Amino acid sequence: MMEGMYQMKRIDTQGITAIEPLEGSGEWYWGTDYTGGDLYEAEELFQDGHPVKQNRLVLLHYPDGKVVQPVTAGSGQYLGRPVFYEGKIILLRVDFPAGKIEVLQYDTAGQVSALAAIPLSDVQDCYNIMLKRWPLMLTRQGSEDKFQILWPEKAEFVIGATEAFEFRVEDKLYFSSWHEDPNYREEVIVRDVHTGRIVDRIPGSTAVMPDGQIWLLG
Q1: What phi-psi label fits residue 193: left (phi over 0), alpha (psi between -120 and 50 degrees) or beta?
Q2: Global pTM value
Q3: Quick one: which of 90, 78, 117 has its CA closest to 25?
Q4: DSSP at 35
Q5: Is 44 helix (H, G, I), strand (E, B) or coil?
C-alpha cells in the first residue's frame, strides 16, 4: 500500500452520522437526523397531538467534503428525501401546522426557491411520499396498493401488492415487482402514466446510474 493513499478526513455534520448518495448526482450526498422518524411517523406524532421536533438535513459535496444546510425547518416542519434534477437539488418539506407539502429548489449558488405547495388534505397520509424523475414529480405509494402523482400533474390508479415505483420516462412509469411462483423472480412492470394500464413486462430489475443511464439487470 502506498503511503498516504488513504487519508481520514473529518467532516463536521454537527451530529448527523449516516449519509447516502443523492439520487441523480455523482457528487452530492445527503443525510438527516430523523428526530421524529420518517415523514409518515412525524405526521402520526402531529396527528396524535405531540409536538413535531423539526429535523435537520445536510448536503455533502464529494470530493472536497463541503457541508451545506440548504434549508432550515421550522417548528412543526419536516424534511424528506431530496433528489438531484437538471443541475439543481430538489427538496421536500412538509409543514404540518400549515397543512401543506412544499417542493423547494436549491441551486449551487445557494439560492432556494419554491416550486410548489400541495395541500396535505390532497393525500390520505404521508406514507411513501417521494420526489421522482423524469420529469420531476411528487408521488405517493400508499399502503392501500394505490399509486398517485400529486404534482405537477395528477394521476391515481391501483398497482400490485409487490410493485414499487422506480422512475418515469416520458409517458411510461417503471415499477419493480417480485414474485414467488414458486421460485423467486423479479420483473419490471411498465405502465401508462395516464391510465395505469400495463404496457410491458420485462424480466429482471433496473438500476439508475448517476449519469442517467438505466441498466436492465437480468
Answers
A1: alpha
A2: 0.90
A3: 90
A4: B
A5: helix
Which residue carries 432556494 as its cell? Answer: 112
The dihedral over CA atoms of 203, 204, 205, 207, expressed in degrees to the nearest 10, equals -120
pLDDT per residue of the chain (218 residues) written in tens, 0 to 9: 455 567 888 999 998 999 999 998 989 999 999 887 789 899 998 999 888 889 999 999 999 999 999 999 998 999 999 999 999 999 999 999 999 999 999 997 889 999 999 999 999 999 999 999 989 999 999 888 899 999 999 999 999 999 999 999 999 999 999 999 889 999 999 999 999 999 999 999 999 887 788 999 98
Cell of 158: 391501483
Cα 174 from chain centroid (whole Å): 15
**120 φ, ψ (degrees, to nearest 5):** -60, -25
At which residue does the C-alpha cell 401543506 appear? 100
Secondary structure of residue 40 in the 3-state scheme: helix
Burial 77-110 (b: 16+ CB within 10 A, else e): bbbbbbbbbeebbbbbbbbbeeebbbbbbbeeee
For residues 22 and 82, the answer to whether their CB atoms sit within 8 Å is yes
Q: What is the DSSP letter of 26?
A: S
